[in-house]
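Dear colleagues,

I hope this message finds you well. In preparation for our joint manuscript, I am sending the Carnitine O-palmitoyltransferase 1, muscle isoform (Electrophorus electricus) sequence together with its predicted structure, so that both groups work from identical material. I would be grateful if you could confirm receipt.
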Amino acid sequence: MAEAHQAVGFQFTVTPDGINFHLSREVLKHIYLSGVTSWRKRAIQFKNGILTGVYPASPSSWLFVVIAIMSSIYARLDPSLGMIDSIRKMLPVSDYLTSQSQTVLSAILFATGLWWSLILLLRFTLKVLLSYHGWIFEPHGKMSSSTRLWMSLVKMFSGRRPLLYSFQASLPRLPVPSIDDTICRYLESVRPLLDYDQYKNMEIVANEFKKDQAPRLQKYLWLKSWWASNYVSDWWEEYIYLRGRSPIMVNSNFYTMDLLYMIPTHRQAARAGNVVHALLQYRRKLERGEHIPMRALGVVPMCSSQYERMFNTARIPGIETDCVQHMRNRKHLVVYHRGRFFKLWLYYGGRHLLPSELEQQFQCILSDTSEPQPGELKLASLTAGNRVPWAKARQKYFSEGVNKTSLDAIETAAFFLTLDDEAHGYDPDRAESMDLYAKSLLHGKCFDRWFDKSFTLVVYKNGKIGVNAEHSWADAPIIGHMWEDILATDYFRLGYTEEGHCKGDINKGLAPPSRLQWDIPKACQEVIEHSYLIAKDLADDVDFHGCVFEEFGKGLIKKCRTSPDAFIQLALQLAHYRDKGEFCLTYEASMTRMFREGRTETVRSCTIESTAFVQAMEDTAYTSEQRLALFRKAAEKHQNMYRLAMTGAGIDRHLFCLYIVSKLLDIESPFLNQVLSEPWRLSTSQTPQQQLNLVDIQKFPKYVGAGGGFGPVADDGYGVSYIIVGENLITFHVSNDSLCLQDSHRFGQNIRQAMLDIRELFSLKEKALEYHTIYKLHLCCLHSLTKGQHTAI
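The corresponding structure tokens are as follows:
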């Protein structure tokens, strides 16, 4: 009962002599400290908001402009060309405003207007500079003089010490490609997948669309591109993610793993304590906007809008469409362990709980032997099943009383934490260890992750960790950015004691975590069980294979003078052809964050050039030199397509938006219907690595991430995520539907062999060059020897 008494700030009793108040100094102290922390946070956010609002200028530059204008006035100069006098005449006449005061106030107002105009001019100039993308199409390692000049100008206009959101107002809008370019590139992309008659029919349908319907639809897109910040992103979030009525578990959510080789501690509570504290530190900097914005080449800024909804965010189910709910200033966490939900306060005395204090709290949860309440064990499976039953159950059973209170606690929590009772992680001696690790992070037991939260942190009983992330609010690079920061903070800043505990002292004054209360009737429990069965069938159907490719990595590929991404994509095409005996429509995710509110674009990796290379690899009539030439041609084509996608000249987002407009206008388009119904039987994505460069992999080679993955997009296809780690490691995460003829293990082996076979092409060339050099050296020696003999004679 001590905690209950501490929770009361004051008590009073009524007696015949009056009312006696009993104040609790400890509680009042915490209230005072919490208030101080809150006001300090608001002050910092206000300051950073001003810094971001006037960027690339600074507040001090306003004072400089005011002083310059005032100095010119006292020197009897008028830089305003009469505008200061006009402003002075517009000021109200007052006894408190002398003629001199009116002049000073008019000069300050003019200086402020001039200063703000200069800021807008700087932003516009930077936006124009950032609209240039010629640099991305230049050969790797070579930079023209015009690009060097452009980079110098961008650096000059980018200001100093930018905050996370400083560049948002200067980013260009995503351009709308021309209809001719999009349809031409689309037809080129499907040419290797269709026979002659199919292609001719598609060509006819495409040209009819371009002539009849496309011009009208394109006008609406042009209008939206000028009115909205981004003509794609809001529709992409709504129609691709939020309107989907099938389970988001496996179909939409993705996962990220811990470091591949390292576990800093095997104590579950200690690992959770450090990681949660690191997340709180990251969130504090995020709320203040103090993270350094990401920049390509260290110069070109990336859009930071997706970071805003990382914490305190949940996807709320609806009958027709879901919505994303984002809250601010939430100070609690919800923890799931063995079927029980616990609410944990993250602040004490106006500060974050320390790692040792968090470890203490998590150990309380682990030591709790209470049983789940009726319906509580599998409650989270509602978020794993179909969306409509979950939306109806939420309205009927969770709209009032303790159920609403507990559900609000989950949905408004900073994030969701699962203290898992299983042990997972990569073990070189267990071939299936990565596969089980991936399946656990992606779907777990179908009821021990809250799949609607922006992300669920999973801490296993052996100390390994991972993340399951909901996809609608952001893409994988955003989670990757956070994850790199958290792992570096956990390993190198916070650390552990020799016994594996968090560093710091135990605080005996902390109140323990509280159980969330539920009153779940039998009818609701039946809905929960039904959702669980649907989710379990989906989870059982998914097969995973994790492939740790250590034979070579980015370092050797670059020595071959080719793009690592293009190398891997061509290996995937070769592996898929060997697996299926045919080519398929291939999806590779590319980012468009060089534009405001940009998210992703599709690179169609199966091209005429890539299919020609693959067929040559399988045809013994081709020589190694011919295969290598076809490889270089296909790699160059892939790189060019990737660059087009990054610069807003992709195919699929444009066609997607045209399709949405056609539906809104009730226009039936056979061309768009066919394009949007084509299945992606090979869906691929590269997980970004070392965005922050917080860890020197050369110095700490074991501190490398294992990457992450996602479920297959098509029932009869593969999902492949890969991460290029340092110079000598690549990991692949392969998924498929086990009920079909695919086999992720077989496909993983095909990928490994394809990588080695392509590497062999370069090895043969190197050997040929070596033999050629030796042969020339041998001829030179013979020539010298022969010449010496003739001289002797």
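For the figure legend, we might mention the following. The chain has a mean pLDDT of 89. The radius of gyration is 31 Å.

With kind regards,
E.M.
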